[in-house]
Amino acid sequence: MDNEFWLQRWQQGQIGFHQGRVMPLLQKHWQSLGLPAGSRVLVPLAGKSLDIAWLAAEGHEVLAVELSSVAVEQFFNEHGIQPTIRAATQGTWYEADRIRFYCGDIFELQADELGACVASYDRAALIALTPELRQRYVQRVYGALPAGCQTLLLGLDYPQEQMDGPPFSVPEAEIRQLFEPRWQVRLLETRDVLAHEPKFAARGVTRIHTSVSLLTARS
User: Which residues contact 31 (CB under 8 A, 6 or more apart)?
Assistant: First the structure.
């Protein structure tokens, strides 16, 4: 699953993964992080998620990262926001108020940008990546986040042999394998969502759970 796959999905409007509402699990669990207003929050592989605007409305400085310029421009257009646009060595920056979008490959984002984040919200990044890329992603992106950084991470658990990803099955055991010992992993909630996910059932999935974990980076 390379960059071209995702760029084509956005170009062709094949974005069934986009949700037309703020994620209820974000609204339910975000306050458990106890972040002060003005905290800088990373949202990786963000698409045009409504969660970005919600986090900004909560008073946070949001650093969203998205490969597709189509997604980024749609986000600002749909919210009626005119961003300042500037080119970088790698990628392009779109900035407006509390929201900064880095449009480019997340693996090219400067480590000091990640190092300034005190929290992250990973709704659909980890589960969008193949196993090989998941390991690289955790090492490169999460490895640059500072000690004390907190992450609200959403995972999926379903029989991978029943459906090709994305989204991929990343159960709790794999989350712990990927992140520990550098990150403390605390499971906040698991939920059986098969009855609410007809698209998965139509593809032959017989069991699917979503999980919410709170990760804290150790020093």
Answer: none
